[in-house]
Design a protein that fits this description.
The structure holds two protein chains of two kinds.
Chain A lengths: L1 E4 L2 E4 L8 H8 L18 E4 L2 E4 L12 E3 L8 H12 L9 H8 L8 H7 L11 H12 L5 H5 L3 E5 L4
Parallel strand pairs in A: 1-5
Antiparallel strand pairs in A: 1-2, 3-4, 3-5
Helix pairs in contact in A: 2-3, 2-5
Chain B lengths: L13 H6 L14 E7 L5 E8 L6 E3 L24 E2 L5 E7 L12 E5 L14 E9 L2 H6 L3 E9 L11 E7 L2 E6 L4 H12 L6 E5 L12 H16 L3 E4 L2 H7 L6 E9 L5 E13 L5 H10 L10 E9 L13 H19 L3 H8 L19 H12 L1 H8 L4 E12 L5 H5 L2 E7 L2 E5 L9 H13 L7 E2 L18 H20 L4 H8 L2 E6 L8 E2 L4 E2 L4 E13 L6 E11 L6 H20 L5 E2 L2 E2 L18 E7 L20 H11 L6 E2 L3 H6 L3
Parallel strand pairs in B: 1-12, 8-28, 10-11, 14-15, 18-19, 24-27
Antiparallel strand pairs in B: 1-5, 2-4, 2-6, 3-5, 7-15, 8-13, 9-10, 9-12, 13-14, 16-23, 17-18, 17-20, 21-22, 23-24, 25-26
The chains are: A alpha+beta, B alpha+beta.
């Protein structure tokens, strides 16, 4: 099979029904794509196929024949991808990091100006157990729309550190 | 100039995680590596009457006879075998191990192995169980007198179910055999627990066993004790095959076989004066331990110590027991017994408020622990006891009193919970652990050597901040060594909200010792002149800390963190679905070393608590988890993320690093009772969680 992975033309010798996830991890050596559940529920294995976010654990490799696949290893090639990666570090969107590649890929097709609802919808198929999501929403918003500005996101995680008297 | 502590420095592991470069266990391979699988019991109890194996010779098969050492998973007790011998006590108990060079070859391996069982009658009810793993009694004052002095006695029974940790990275390890030695790489929280288990099961001297933590995709307690079992399995196969063996659970196996939060039944009988002052708290706690002891004794311990909540009461009697049942063993999960018992006491407090006709905030104000008050174990609290400040701040921020009036009689409700959480091991635990931490001066700067693991919570970054400021050098100049038992000392397990307060304090002491030795030189100048050196600090209890394990009395923890949650929610009157509208979380945690990561702990723990309250139901059928998939074990998704307003209050604890206490576990203690109290406010009398639509339908008042 011929697959364009992160802009590189690759010839993969694998069973056409092998999961795209396994082809990427085992045949292409790109282990940044993670498996969380193997049933399309958690989104940890999200990659872009021709620009659309898919769960690579549900996609047979044959489906990717001749298509462009983007993984976390290639996402920094786009401006949005790079901005997302930085924002996930800056705004606490990555804790244990196992869902992070999938989250970033799921957010990558979003455009500047995306609303909180757009962001939630884009990430609806991705599970995170560490953050409870506010920090991920803030990270994506910051990457797309610049430093936190809208009250709705500020409310989804406003924090004030206050000193409550001396010891 | 010291400035890393208290600022949101860039986390050490951030860039590797967002680029996909970070290596988790399944990302590693070794030359000649085999893949391992586990054959498990399909019956909950009884002898294994026959085993028939018809696998091709290129499979490696191991059973209990292949264990060179002792056949138990060394932790607290010695009751849990690595591999069952004659009997099983639960479904999914490991019996045989199989390895093969091709991962695919293992997919249908169960078709070639048949096990017969002679099923015996299982018991799934902890209250009728005839085997008790642990009993604990706490007595303060005289319960009979407290009840005699009361004007009102209010009783209640509260139940909680299993909860799955649901780290997104499943359990996994790789065992690499050597000549009379064994190295295990894995996704784990407690490298020295795994080390101890391997020494016992593999019959190797401690120096011939090495455990290395790989990047770990979440733990939440679920990788506290289970990796010891899995590491032994991989090591048994690797030894027999003479080749490295990788064992990664798929999601279904992880859900069916690994530990969950203990289900609980808590009964309260509470004496009060008519104006709402507590005179007696009589509390009975039952925890379902599952089939083997694992950590049940200590889960029960933290559970009973927190069972009276953050309240002052002179006469307290708490009876706790952890009972055996024929389900897979329950174990560590963030909160460790305290979410169960504080759910009960906080739901009970709102029933008390309702029956006495007192505002729930007022009832808590009357009874909340203040500095100088004593807890149920008789611990006198220091000036950082912050129940009232967190309560008042949360009530104010959420506009609780006004909303409580406005929403009455609608399908919206608002409820609160007040709770606390002890930091560090319980009672004499830290003294027994006697943890050590080291700081090494290298050519490239000071390097932290601890066994504390980074599991997402920010260990590496937070420890480096403490060291940087205590040494007076930039944050970026501090390195964090890999967690590898060949190089790092035993800093104890990464559990119990102890990684900052206890291990962080050891590192602060190391850094201050190193600073003294450096004198006026920078680390680089010193290294050039004198070469490398290492400083080590060992745990010493703060002065005056006393614990009596026989009477279960005294200073249960060095300090406590305090919190108040307010949850506003809406109930769909047709589907009984609950939608959280707004959450307020005020937490007093001592110094917030990294405010953004502390916020991440609070937001994330609160979300797990919302799942515990509303949707996360482990359905057990004949001792087996029936909904062992993410399709029907429902954790919160991005669509469920309700706006959450977090406020962090800082009352420094004198013996924590820069005044810090623990933060990791506490946030999961409060959401469930706040949700249940909000549901009570809109007319649903729910006394067990999760509050699924079915339970709500049955609980309309």
């Amino acid at each position: 099979m011929r697959i364009i992975v992160n802009g590189k033309r690759m010839i993969v010798r694998a069973h056409p029904m092998k999961r795209l996830l396994d082809v990427l991890r085992e045949d292409c050596g790109l282990t940044g794509t993670k498996e969380g559940c193997g049933e399309g529920e958690c989104g940890a294995c999200t990659v872009l196929v021709d620009g659309l976010a898919v769960d690579s654990c549900l996609v047979p490799a044959a489906h990717a024949e001749g298509r462009k696949v983007m993984t976390i290893e290639g996402v920094s090639q786009t401006r949005t991808g790079k901005a997302l990666q930085n924002a996930f570090v800056e705004h606490g969107g990555a804790q244990c990091g196992i869902c992070t590649p999938g989250m970033i890929l799921a957010a990558a097709p979003l455009k500047s100006g995306a609303s909180l609802n757009d962001i939630k919808t884009a990430l609806a198929g991705n599970l995170c157990r560490c953050t409870g999501y506010p920090a991920i929403l803030r990270s994506v918003d910051a990457a797309l729309n610049g430093p936190p500005r809208r009250s709705i996101l500020a409310k989804a995680g406003k924090k004030k550190v206050r000193r409550a008297g001396a010891r | 100039v010291a400035c890393a502590v208290g600022s949101n420095v860039r986390r050490k592991d951030g860039d590797a995680k967002v680029t996909g470069a970070a290596k988790y266990i399944d990302d590693l391979t070794f030359p000649g590596m085999l893949y391992g699988a586990t054959i498990r019991s399909t019956f909950p109890r009884g002898p294994i009457s026959a085993r028939r194996i018809s696998l091709a010779p290129d499979f490696v098969v191991a059973d209990h006879r292949d264990i060179p050492g002792q056949n138990y998973v060394a932790l607290i007790e010695t009751d849990q075998p690595c591999l069952a011998v004659d009997d099983v006590r639960h479904v999914a108990e490991p019996i045989l191990l199989v390895a093969h060079a091709e991962k695919q070859a293992l997919l249908d391996v169960e078709r070639h192995v048949s096990l017969d069982f002679s099923p015996a009658a299982p018991n799934y009810d902890p209250e009728t169980s005839d085997f008790c793993f642990k009993r604990i009694s706490i007595d303060k004052g005289d319960i009979d007198r407290g009840l005699r002095d009361s004007q009102v006695v209010i009783e209640g029974e509260y139940r909680t179910g299993h909860q799955e940790q649901l780290y997104i990275e499943t359990n996994g390890v790789i065992a690499v055999p050597g000549d009379g030695e064994m190295t295990v790489y894995g996704s784990l929280q407690c490298p020295y627990y795994v080390h101890k288990a391997l020494v016992v099961a593999m019959n190797l001297p401690p120096g011939r066993v090495r455990v290395i933590q790989t990047e770990t995709g979440g733990g939440f307690g679920g990788k506290e004790e289970y990796p010891s079992m899995l590491a032994c399995h991989a090591a048994i196969l690797a030894r027999k095959a003479g080749r490295p063996v990788k064992m990664i659970y798929d999601r279904v196996e992880d859900l069916i076989a690994t530990t969950k939060r203990h289900p609980s039944i808590v009964r309260h009988r509470t004496g009060l004066t008519r104006d709402g002052r507590l005179t007696a708290m009589d509390i009975d706690v039952v925890m379902d331990g599952g089939a083997y002891a694992t950590l049940s004794a200590v889960v029960l311990s933290r559970g009973v110590i927190h069972a009276a909540g953050p309240y002052r009461c002179d006469h307290v009697r708490i009876r706790g027991r952890a009972m055996m049942t024929n389900t897979p063993p329950n174990g560590a999960f963030r909160g460790f017994g305290a979410p169960q018992t504080q759910f009960a006491v906080e739901a009970h407090m709102d029933r008390i408020a309702e029956q006495l006709g007192i505002d729930p905030v007022r009832l808590r104000e009357i009874n909340a622990l203040k500095p100088g008050d004593t807890t149920a174990t008789g611990q006198s609290l220091g000036n950082d006891a912050s129940a009232l400040p967190v309560l008042r701040e949360a009530v104010k921020r959420s506009d609780f009193k006004k909303k409580r009036r406005q929403l009455k009689g609608t399908n919206r409700g608002i409820g609160l919970s007040l709770f606390f959480h002890g930091s560090g091991f319980t009672g004499g635990g830290e003294v027994k652990l006697a943890s050590t931490a080291s700081l090494e001066l290298t050519a490239t700067g000071p390097r932290i050597l601890v066994a504390s693991t980074e599991i997402g919570q920010g260990t590496r970054t937070m420890h480096a901040q403490i060291v940087a400021d205590a040494l007076g050098i930039p944050f970026d100049a501090v390195e964090v060594g890999e967690v590898d038992t060949a190089f790092v000392p035993d800093s104890g397990p990464t559990v119990a909200s102890r990684t900052c307060m206890i291990v962080g304090k050891l590192l602060e002491r190391c850094a201050r010792d190193m600073r003294k030795r450096l004198g006026t030189l920078t680390p680089a100048q010193y290294f050039r002149a004198h070469g490398s050196f290492t400083v080590t600090a060992q745990y010493e209890p703060p002065p005056g800390l006393q614990w009596d394990d026989d009477r279960y009395a005294g200073d249960a923890y060095g300090s406590y963190a305090w919190s108040c949650n307010v949850v506003e929610l809406e109930v769909d009157p047709i589907t009984f679905e609950v939608t959280p509208i707004r959450i307020t979380a005020v937490a007093e945690i001592g110094k917030a070393i990294h405010p953004m990561m502390a916020l991440g702990q609070i937001e994330g723990g609160t979300a797990q608590g919302m799942g515990y309250a509303l949707t996360e139901e482990v359905v057990m059928q004949d001792g087996r988890m029936a909904n062992a998939q993410l399709t029907n074990y429902i954790i919160p998704t991005p669509m469920d993320a309700a706006p959450i307003d977090v406020a962090i209050l800082e009352r420094p604890y004198a013996y924590g690093p820069f005044g810090a206490k623990g933060v990791g576990e506490m946030p999961i203690d409060g959401p469930a009772p706040a949700v249940i109290n909000a549901l009570r406010h809109c007319g649903y009398d729910v006394r067990s969680i999760p509050a699924t639509p079915e339970r709500l339908l049955a609980s309309r008042t």
